[in-house]
Amino acid sequence: MTGKSSKLLRCLLVLGASFLLIAGMAWAQDDDKNETSIQKRIDNAANVLNEIMSTPDKAIPDKVMHDAKCIAVIPSMVKIAVGFGGNHGKGVAVCRLENGRWSGPAPITITGGSWGLQLGGQAVDLVLVVTNQQGMEHLLSSKFKIGADASAAAGPVGRDTGADTDWKMKAEILTYSRARGLFAGVDLNGSAVTQDKDETHLLYGKFVPFEAILTGKVRPPAGSGAFEATVRKYAGQAEDHGE
């Protein structure tokens, strides 16, 4: 091998090693970003619920929250429409356990679409309130479609709204949205709710099925306390008895 060839080979080896080092650092940064992302999602979900419930005349009724079987919050779902519409968002869900306490957070995604003469895009905060056992069973299945698998309705608004309506008999899930400061019930029929398996793995250190998380078979992960406290504040929780 000539001197020039030897130098060229050494350069290529150095470049290759540098490339692998840079790539490894990038992948590590992506992992850090992913871990930060799921934590940020949980914190944002807590903030959304706090902000919504802090406006009494625009909030979810206390009766709805106190009777909730499960609650899901999707901060900043993206709605985009150019001729046809679509939406995609990520959030977390919790369910009330048999002892009255709340499960750890289960990462979820919601996707759906609508056709029509639309133009524009916006970020929308969503809240889904599961009202009965049938709706909870759909959520535990880790994948269902709103309106097809689980009946849904735009939820009533106003914390002091009475419970003299028949919403609970008609809908397994009550749906709400907030966009540009306006909060109201929303029609999400056709949207699919699924478990976010990748972020479940990041949050719990391994993949854990929806059913195991939402029935309390695993302990809530570190960093989820703010969301749990917010849900407990507005939806209630059984008293601790020496726990």
Key descriptive features of the protein:
alpha+beta, 243 residues, seven-stranded mixed β-sheet, 7 helices
What do these coordinates show?
The chain has helices at 3-53, 62-66, 133-140, 167-170, 197-204, 210-214, 225-235, and strands spanning 70-95, 106-130, 143-145, 152-154, 173-179, 182-185, 192-195. The model is unreliable at 11-33, 115-120 and 238-243 (pLDDT under 50). The chain has one domain. α1 runs parallel beside α7 (225-235). The chain is α+β, with helices and mostly antiparallel strands. Strands 1, 2, 3, 4, 5, 6 and 7 form a seven-stranded mixed beta sheet that branches. The protein is built from seven helices and seven strands. Helix content is 38%, strand content 30%.
